[in-house]
Amino acid sequence: MHDNNIKVQEIKDRVKTFVEQRNWQEAHNPKNLAMSIAIESAELMEIFQWLSIQESWEVKNSEQFTHLKEELADVLIYCLSLSNRLDIDVTTIIEEKLKKNEKKYPVNEKND
Ligand SMILES: [Mg+2]
């Protein structure tokens, strides 16, 4: 857990450096980054458009899988960039939201 947290910070720093070295800070404002997360999410969805549920599972074993991983990475990179610009600790917000979700959606004991 702790080691993963260090790795997240390393990736966040790398994303920050990538943006700064290209002088993209002005374009990478919260509005544009939020829009970019949605746009990259749409690119991810486009891979599955018109596929059946069964076909969506088969993407993992197709030549489209590399494309899927790249679009997922694009979404995650923009998420980390937004967290950089707004000084948000992603580990903390995920842990807090998971706690909230666990309360909101308690385990149904009937299913155990
Ligand atoms: Mg993309």
From TrEMBL:
GO molecular function: nucleoside triphosphate diphosphatase activity
Superkingdom field: Bacteria
SUPFAM superfamilies in UniProt: all-alpha NTP pyrophosphatases
Any one GO BP annotation for this protein: nucleoside triphosphate catabolic process
Gene3D superfamilies: MazG-like
CDD domains for this protein: NTP-PPase_RS21-C6_like (cd11537)
Record-linked InterPro entries: dCTP_Pyrophosphatase, DCTPP
Name recorded for this polypeptide: Nucleotide pyrophosphohydrolase
Species the sequence originates in: Fervidibacillus halotolerans
